[in-house]
């Protein structure tokens, strides 16, 4: 995880800041990056603001207003260079249509979005343990 | 998704490795029903004929006779009714080509089988915790 | 003439294929039964329970330890064979950050004082980051692992030269006896018996293969108070030989 980028796509900058705090508190060695919508995310994956190394993990809030998460995942899956990214979808609302669409795009997990600090620490600790237990291609 | 007791299909040809998963599940108090297929052909058959009921996830070995894990994944992703199933690779293969192929076919994780059983119990515990975050 | 060049080429690719297949067999087909031995041992131990008797339990521990060694050796062989095939991305590395991360990931860094010194006009460089990281980590790990004193001092010195970086990792540990210095880069060689200090003896072999691949140099010199100094010259511009 050292030197790796993890891209968080969420309309709320404060949420990113809280997540980044949780990352550092847990000691996650990857760098959390932020995109406020699908367009900005795409530019960080493929466009002028391309992140290097390319993130192997993304966290996306697909039901946030003003963010077309499904469209973004779809584009990622169709792109040769990006299609292998491990995508974790978080959401705090029930939208079964989006959920089905996301699962059909082979996301790695559809999860309830944590907000409160302790809840966030638990959530990212569990995810971090999982990320550390799996292999990534080099 | 573990709460809803997802059915788990283990695709694995080695008898000891099957026993290993069963034992690690029981050590971790995982109560989900476990189905076993010895290769990709058998696994596809069990999924298509609904021997493994919904909802379901797959734990997949790579090196198997008849149809190996990567070939199985290709078939799975090409099948409209099966393509959305979450797949976790569990293998000895540390080859980069296997990892790349598996992630290109969008597995949710690629786990190396550790040598020691104690470590394997820990891997399975981590997997269980991750599953408990996920909704199906 | 052209014919023979072509057949040479064919022979070379056949050999390469054979080699890759061999590596794959080692990695998978041998590991599966090896893992079965280890697992079944644990099950029997588990099923016998704690009353099995000290001798039996001790033998189980030995058996698992030796299978563990076998696995470490296989993994080291695999890693060595993959040095110029995997983790070949060039990216920007920040020297102080990289060293700091290596130190943080040591699992044996208690009672160790790290003295780090940089002489760099630019802290960042674009290089094979994972490879550099591996070499620095291996040398730091060795410096700590084989140290014989209660309080351990480990020194890291990075200097930027015109065409390379000179990285010196030294310690005030026991050093390496003169008569075995030419063996330390050989695979599976360990200065101590593996029963005294369980290590695979592959770290320096892998490190030196990496350094050789990037066109750099690695060498050992005895340090002050008999400690060790490992010096790496890591080129700024990496030209990969095939």
From TrEMBL, chain A:
<feature type="modified residue" description="4-aspartylphosphate">
    <location>
        <position position="61"/>
    </location>
</feature>
<protein>
    <submittedName>
        <fullName>Response regulator receiver domain-containing protein</fullName>
    </submittedName>
</protein>
<feature type="domain" description="Response regulatory">
    <location>
        <begin position="5"/>
        <end position="128"/>
    </location>
</feature>
<dbReference type="InterPro" id="IPR011006">
    <property type="entry name" value="CheY-like_superfamily"/>
</dbReference>
<dbReference type="Pfam" id="PF00072">
    <property type="entry name" value="Response_reg"/>
</dbReference>
<dbReference type="InterPro" id="IPR001789">
    <property type="entry name" value="Sig_transdc_resp-reg_receiver"/>
</dbReference>
<dbReference type="InterPro" id="IPR050595">
    <property type="entry name" value="Bact_response_regulator"/>
</dbReference>
<dbReference type="GO" id="GO:0000160">
    <property type="term" value="P:phosphorelay signal transduction system"/>
</dbReference>
<keyword id="KW-0597">Phosphoprotein</keyword>
From TrEMBL, chain B:
<dbReference type="Pfam" id="PF00072">
    <property type="entry name" value="Response_reg"/>
</dbReference>
<dbReference type="InterPro" id="IPR011006">
    <property type="entry name" value="CheY-like_superfamily"/>
</dbReference>
<keyword id="KW-0597">Phosphoprotein</keyword>
<dbReference type="GO" id="GO:0000160">
    <property type="term" value="P:phosphorelay signal transduction system"/>
</dbReference>
<feature type="domain" description="Response regulatory">
    <location>
        <begin position="7"/>
        <end position="128"/>
    </location>
</feature>
<protein>
    <submittedName>
        <fullName>Response regulator receiver domain-containing protein</fullName>
    </submittedName>
</protein>
<dbReference type="InterPro" id="IPR052893">
    <property type="entry name" value="TCS_response_regulator"/>
</dbReference>
<feature type="modified residue" description="4-aspartylphosphate">
    <location>
        <position position="61"/>
    </location>
</feature>
<dbReference type="InterPro" id="IPR001789">
    <property type="entry name" value="Sig_transdc_resp-reg_receiver"/>
</dbReference>
From TrEMBL, chain C:
<keyword id="KW-0597">Phosphoprotein</keyword>
<keyword id="KW-0067">ATP-binding</keyword>
<dbReference type="InterPro" id="IPR036097">
    <property type="entry name" value="HisK_dim/P_sf"/>
</dbReference>
<dbReference type="InterPro" id="IPR036890">
    <property type="entry name" value="HATPase_C_sf"/>
</dbReference>
<keyword id="KW-0547">Nucleotide-binding</keyword>
<dbReference type="InterPro" id="IPR003661">
    <property type="entry name" value="HisK_dim/P_dom"/>
</dbReference>
<dbReference type="InterPro" id="IPR003594">
    <property type="entry name" value="HATPase_dom"/>
</dbReference>
<dbReference type="GO" id="GO:0005524">
    <property type="term" value="F:ATP binding"/>
</dbReference>
<keyword id="KW-0902">Two-component regulatory system</keyword>
<feature type="domain" description="Histidine kinase">
    <location>
        <begin position="25"/>
        <end position="238"/>
    </location>
</feature>
<dbReference type="GO" id="GO:0030295">
    <property type="term" value="F:protein kinase activator activity"/>
</dbReference>
<keyword id="KW-0418">Kinase</keyword>
<dbReference type="GO" id="GO:0000156">
    <property type="term" value="F:phosphorelay response regulator activity"/>
</dbReference>
<protein>
    <recommendedName>
        <fullName>histidine kinase</fullName>
        <ecNumber>2.7.13.3</ecNumber>
    </recommendedName>
</protein>
<dbReference type="GO" id="GO:0007234">
    <property type="term" value="P:osmosensory signaling via phosphorelay pathway"/>
</dbReference>
